[in-house]
Amino acid sequence: MNASSPDSISNLRGLGDTGSPAATHRHVPVVRPPAGYWRLALPITGKDGAILIDRRALAANLGLIVALLALSGLSLCLGSVTLAPLETVRALLGQGDAMDAFLVHELRLPRLAAGIATGAAFALSGCLMQTLAGNRLATPGIIGIDNGATAFAVASVVGMGMSLAPPPLALAGAATATALTFGLAGGVGTRGYRFIVAGIGVGAVFGALTQLMLARVDIDTANAAYPWTMGSLNARDPASLWALAGALSIGLVISRYIAQALNVLRFSDSVAAGLGIRVRCCRRGALMLSVTLTALAVAVAGPVGMVALIGPELARHVSSPRGVPLMGSALAGALVMVGADLAGRLMLAPLEIPVGIVTAVIGGPLLLWILLRPSRRTC
Questions:
Q1: Pick from 94, 124, 125, 121: which is nearest to 109 by CA?
Q2: What pTM value is reported for the model?
Q3: SS3 of 103, please?
Q4: Fewest CB atoms within 10 A around its CB: which of 115, 180, 347, 374?
Q5: Do 160 and 311 form a contact (C-beta atoms < 8 A)?
Q6: With the CA atoms of 78, 84, 86 and 92 taken in that order, what torsion angle do they form, in degrees rounded to the nearest 10?
């Protein structure tokens, strides 16, 4: 047979270099993942695809989930009335003593849900803002977003007699504070200390307005609003909590979608743009998400300080240094909020310390430590 005939050419292609049709499959080089990653092969649209999983980040998130579940169990069991673990489980299932079921379902479980949702929202918002600003001090509480949401929520109670902290007005207050901070920063964006100083000034003004409004109302209204202005999870509005839960679910999905872009944004904008990142769109989306989560969390629990600082800081120390710990920050924030609320309920029982005071006591020394310790990396 002629070597140049189509049949012979076809036979040569099928045999390959070793004369076996499967040789090409045997000699495909094995793609090894980078150090510290697992490579998970996935079939994507009929082709071979793979995703890389950071082993340390995965282990850290699993550890935070286990710690959060354990602390949640303690929160349901402990309080002015202590329940055994078996009694708590029966109460959750609607069995056992009716008083235990009421205590768990009507008092402790909504409070636990509020703590998990608000803690995750505050910490995720703080991590996003820190990443945008390139500074660990740039949290929503420090740059005035919390105080703006609080002022508008208190104004709704004092001026219109509405229920405490309606989400729309809290969102309007947070957006107003953010706009004022950007305006006073002189167009420098979120980078630099000028943005942080402007935010501190805006927050101080809104904080003073809140105290002025509370000082001009009757004593009963002021007493009812004061614990909430300190940060509290007691008797939260279910509608506000559902709104926060929905926004947080969407926010986690969006955060996962923009995580890679946020990793690149830790470098300069020119580097990010050179790598194909739509810098302006990414910054706007992350900023809007941070403001929304902060406002809705304030509408539920009030301006709980330092969670947006403690959560990302804890996540950075237990997670991988190779990326922005968005999920880790949310889990760590929930853990901090639930733990602070439990401590506030138990330390001086039957008296209750608002959760905002507990987090301030914990976060104050941490803030000093961050200021005195050189930063090696941002969130």
A1: 94
A2: 0.83
A3: helix
A4: 374
A5: no
A6: -30
Tracing tokens 């080089």 back to the chain, one arrives at: 29
Determine the Cα angle at 204 with ends 200 and 205, to 5°: 120
Distance CA 304, CA 345 (A): 16
Domains along the sequence of the chain with CATH: 6-48 (no CATH), 56-372 (1.10.3470.10)
Count Cα neighbours of 286 within 13 Å in the Cβ-side half-sphere. 29
Helical residues (DSSP H) of 85-137, grouped into ranges: 85-92, 98-102, 109-133
Q: Let me know: does 147 contact 208? Beta carbons within 8 Å.
A: no
Stretches where the chain sits below pLDDT 70 are 1-31, 33-38, 41-50, 159-166, 186-192, 268-269, 371, 373-379
Are the C-beta atoms of 304 and 359 separated by less than 8 Å? yes
Let me know: does 320 contact 52? Beta carbons within 8 Å: no
pLDDT of 39-74, one tens digit each? Answer: 776 665 445 556 777 778 888 889 999 999 999 999
Q: Which two tokens stand for residue 362?
A: 């914990």
**Nearest residue to 265 via CA among 249, 26, 274:** 274
Euclidean distance between CA atoms 172 and 298, whole angstroms: 12
Identify the bridge partners of residue 49 per DSSP, sorted by sequence position.
Answer: 42
* Predicted confidence (pLDDT) per residue in 240-256, tens digit: 889 999 999 999 999 88
CA distance 35 to 279: 29
Cβ burial of 70 (10 Å; 0-12, 13-18, 19+) is exposed
